[in-house]
Design a protein that fits this description.
4 helices, globular, alpha+beta
Length: 119
Amino acid sequence: MPDAEDVRRIALSLPETTEKTAWSMPTFRVAGKMFATLPEDETSIAVRCPKEERDELVRAEPGKFWIATHEAQFAWVRARLAALEDEAELRDILADSWRQAAPPRLLEAHPGVGVPGGR
């Protein structure tokens, strides 16, 4: 089961990612834009996710994904680390969120990040 240190290691391995504490929790940013957080007791992550996809994820796997009340109006979803299948699933979730926040120059320079089979 992935843990907070796996989140940190994987997030920071993504191009131009930095860690910054905000709202008393670790946040991960690409080119200054936040793409992931480790809220509360670091047993879950919050990541960017288009609202339509987010709602589908929550309906399909409510034990794994949920929407925090204060984030409902934003395109973010939470995932319970203990419910993730493995580190590969965590990597896919973080990389997909990174792609949503990364500027075009980084997407062009790293076309495989966050793309299935691309790493």
